[in-house]
Amino acid sequence: MKKKTIGWCAAGLLLVLAAGYALTRSPGKRSEGAEAATGAANAAPVSVSTVRAVQKDVDIRLEATGTVAALNSVEVRPQVASTVSGVHIKEGQFVKAGTLLFTLDARNDAANVAKARAQLARDLASLSDAQRQLARSKELLQQNFISQGAVDTNQSLVDAQAAVVQADRAALQSAEVGLGFARIVATSAGRAGAINVFPGSYVQPGGLPLVTITQIDPIAVAFNLPQRNLGQALQTLRAGGGTVTAVLPEGRGMLTGKLQFVDNAVDASSGTVRVKAQFDNRDEKLWPGGYVSVQLAVQTIKGAIVLPQAAVIQGVRGKAVYVVGDDRRAVLRPVEVLDALGTDAVVTGVRAGERVVVDGRQNVRPGGVVVERSAQSASGASAVRGASGAAAQATSAAVAP
After folding, report:
1. 370, 44 Cβ separation under 8 angstroms
2. pLDDT digits over 369-382, tens only?
3. Among 210, 262, 236, which Cα is nearest to 83's?
4. CA 283/CA 338 separation, integer angstroms
5. For the packed helices 148-180 and 107-142, what is the interaxial angle rounded to 10 degrees?
6. CATH of the domain at 165
7. CB–CB of 308/376 below 8 Å?
8. Which end of the chain is more exposed for a tag (fewer CB within 10 A), N or C?
9. Tens of pLDDT along 208-263?
10. Same structural domain, 241 and 255
């Protein structure tokens, strides 16, 4: 009985000690959490640059590299073998359809035409005589001086001579066509390229082109789009052709045209589809064979929220931005990027007019206090820091032995 009492006393003592230990530890834990919260709240303000989110209508554009191509380019070649007798244009000259470009030696063809005309005249005379003989025979038949067989014979002579005359006319047309090959004219308007022949040069079909006539205005730009954008391109084409912007290299400006063509097959090797846009080119800013950056507008987002891409933070849980409230505290806000517009981005999750942290966001913590400065001031400070660093490096280089 005495041992049992001692056991109960020992168990009670252990419970008292455990309770006392817990009481002494709990205040400490609460103190540490409070200290952490107090530290986050009382941390030194972080200097950041902010911009306001802007709401506006935004065109969604597909970007690609395009090649300038002529809508019409004709290599002028002779259709007969002959000698060039005259060159009637200059290199680089703009010509209209029907303009005389070259003349070939046509003496043989002119003689063939003259011969065909003479043959036609002779056979026409024979036809006239046969027709007169037929008329007389019909009169004599009415007077019973000749038989019907004689009249039929004269009718056959007239029909045969008429067929000969028809063949002569065809031969004359053929000779005139051959003579026409001696005059080489432009089939379309455009700019003449390099002239490869001179008076006295012998030319023949299948040889080098005499000159190439290329249409400059209007002109086309061909480019490739990924297969995933084929539906957008077709929808834009059915709607009348979306706006296509060609950005010239080296800051030489841009031109605006319309989508005109989407190819009927996807290139299996590249997974792209070829499309083409047409541009007015009165100022000759686009030249066949050149490269330009192309932007095709396929959709317009009404009332989109736009902010700098530099404000978007890529984290393990997705994209987010720091939004500064009226209490100067930064709030981490999840966003979704709908499209990129150069240095800007179209996002959801931010309201128009809210201030978003751009520069200095790497030092910001959720709930932390920030000191705002304009983005222009931040860029100016960065430039000053860059200039100071360059001056310091130059001084070090000068002092170094």
Report:
1. no
2. 888 875 554 444 44
3. 210
4. 37
5. 160
6. 1.10.287
7. no
8. C
9. 999 999 999 999 999 999 998 898 889 888 888 778 999 998 878 889 999 999 99
10. yes
